[in-house]
Amino acid sequence: MNEEDKMNGNTGEVAAPEELPAAGTGESAANKNTAPDVGAADNAAADAAAADTADNAPDTQSRPGSYVDSVEFSEEDKKRKKYIEKNCMTPRERSVSWTLVSLCVIVVAITAVYFIVDTGNRDILGFETTTAAPPTTEAELLDATPLSAAQKANLPQTDFPAGIQEKYKALYAANSDFVGWLRIPGTGIDFPVVQAPDESYDYYLRKLYDKSYSRYGAIFMDYRCTYAPFSKNTIIYGHHFLADELFFAPVEYYQDVEYYKQHPIMEFNTLYADYKWKICACFIINCDAYNDNGYVFDYIYPFMSDANFAEFMKDVEKRSYFVTPDVDIEPTDKILVLSTCTYNLTSGGDSNNCRCALVARLVRDGESSDVDVSRAYQNENPKMPQLYYNIRGISNPYSGDAKWYPSSD
Questions:
Q1: What is the CATH number of domain 137-392?
Q2: DSSP of 251-265
């Protein structure tokens, strides 16, 4: 058995090297071809040193670094040693690194599971997805309404409200909170509308049409509003997802009068009748009083009197991004407001809790739904919350305006 085998521990014993290197050579018989096994070389060097100084040498077995300390390494070995110390991890460092990697993998896995569970195998309306495109239009959804076998069998016995339109019976049977269908042709806004009862303002904020949980929520009417007949001000809410451009994302596009000119009519059909609405304004409002000198423009109040409504619409006209001379407003009119989040007044990474509202006036009995959009124009100086002017460092030309407050008297 050769000396290299012994140095590598193949015999279970440690033997002294054939010869110690001369001072300054930086070589030994073992490291001429391979890197030395430091532990074996230490013990061998200790034995050799003990043999040379038997009378007064210390116990070299208690000094495992004596051989290493006594050898002057070559420049190449020194560089290799520095490289290892700088670039290679200790067992403890490797353990910490693997722990961090494992934690990252766990976080990613949990996040993936969240989104899978959140939407499951449903589309954004809560219906089971298939290989075909999910239903989005009213006609498609009516065909794909997710009724159970029992519901389908009992459909003729469902307690429908008197006067319900035939086309909406399946949707009502699937969810009796269904109140109608909202559509703005050509915009992507084309959804069923629900209304939670009993002052459940945010019930559908994180629930789909089938009442299953989802961060997308549903399109829902303010619980205070009525639709047979309509409230003076009927409010419908929907999320606005920047990344997905879903639900009420197109509402903000109406800040450009050219977009309005392409899509001036809104449809909101209820369980009992179909209605058209002429779009007349789009504006931004704050929801926190401190962002507008202690004031919040309460655009979601349903019960305005005719006189109070007239004053409200005057303020809305000032706030609107565009002006529509062909859509007049009378005190006895009724309006529909679509409300969604906006990020136009973001500052310092904070969205500042603001909303964008799109307003439409109900087409009157006997009135044509046609609109002469050629007369519409951009409002170059719409009235904004004080926050808008603060962000831009400019004065507020409307700071002296009288503040409107809702009233049913």
A1: 2.40.260.10
A2: GGGGGSHHHHHH--E
Using CA atoms, how far residue 389 sits from 42, 281, 341, 346, 361, in Å, is 77, 21, 19, 12, 30
**The pLDDT of residue 194 is above 50:** yes
- Round to whole Å and give the CA distance between 209 and 126: 6
- Tell me the one-letter amino acid at 91: P
Which pair of structure tokens corresponds to residue 60? Answer: 């070299």
User: What is the predicted pLDDT for the residue at 210?
Assistant: 84
26 CB-contact burial (10 Å; exposed 0-12 / middle 13-18 / buried 19+): middle
Query: Smallest Cα–Cα separation from 336: which of 189, 202, 221, 199?
Result: 221
Structural tokens at position 362: 């109900």
DSSP 69-109: HH----HHHHHHHHHHHHHSPPHHHHHHHHHHHHHHHHHHH
Q: What pLDDT score does 204 carry?
A: 94
Could you tell me the two tokens for 134?
Answer: 């999910």
Closest CA to 304 of 226, 231, 356: 231
Residue-wise pLDDT for 359-402, tens only, equals: 999 999 999 999 999 999 999 999 999 999 999 999 999 999 99
**3-class SS at 137?**
coil
- The CA-atom distances, in angstroms, between 266 and each of 29, 93, 262, 263, 303 are 92, 63, 12, 8, 22
According to DSSP, the β-strands at 233-237 and 335-342 are parallel
Query: In this structure, are residues 28 and 21 in contact, taking their beta carbons and an 8 Å threshold?
Result: yes
Tokens of residue 79, six digits: 């560089």
H or E element: which one contains 284? strand 276-286
Greater model confidence, 71 or 387:
387
Q: CB neighbours (10 Å) of residue 359?
A: 27
Cis peptide before 229 (omega within 30 of 0): yes
* 21-25 long-range Cβ contacts below 8 angstroms, 24+ apart: 21/71, 23/72, 24/72
Structure tokens at 248: 């009420």
Would you call 138 helix, strand, or coil by DSSP?
helix
- List where CATH 2.40.260.10 sits in the chain: 137-392
